[in-house]
Amino acid sequence: MPRPKKTLQNNDLLEAALAGLQLRRQQLDEQIQEVRALLGKNNGRRGRPPGAPKQGRLSVAARKRIAAAQKRRWAEYRKSAAKAG
């Protein structure tokens, strides 16, 4: 003889268990944040803070100007190092 289904009771029990687990999860997340704050750690995010403006890409011309300036600086450094040494 087949058993009668008790889906209503099972669903209620599972929903209550889920609600309890979600509450416990929220409490654990809050405790983890407190411990991280005590350790001096941030909330785990890395990189740019939210809402910060994105950094733009350099144009080809800008990269060439920067490279030329760096080459001039190194040339001056080598010249002064040759005089000193």
Task: Offer a few descriptive terms.
elongated, 85 residues, mainly alpha
Please explain how this structure is put together.
The protein is an all-alpha fold. The chain is 68% helix and 0% strand.
Question: Short description, anyone?
Answer:
This protein has one domain (8-43, 59-84). It is built from 2 helices and no strands.
Separate helix tally: 2
The portion of residues assigned to helices is 55-70%
**Quick one: overall form?**
elongated
Number of strands: 0
Helix and strand content put the structural class at mainly alpha
Give the percentage of residues in beta strands. under 5%
* Helix and strand sequence: HH
Radius of gyration: 32 Å
- Unreliable spans are none
Measured between the Cα atoms of the first and last residue, the distance is 103 Å
- Tally of structural domains: 1
Biggest sheet architecture: none
The average pLDDT value, as a whole number, equals: 85
Topology:
Layout: H1 7-39, H2 60-84
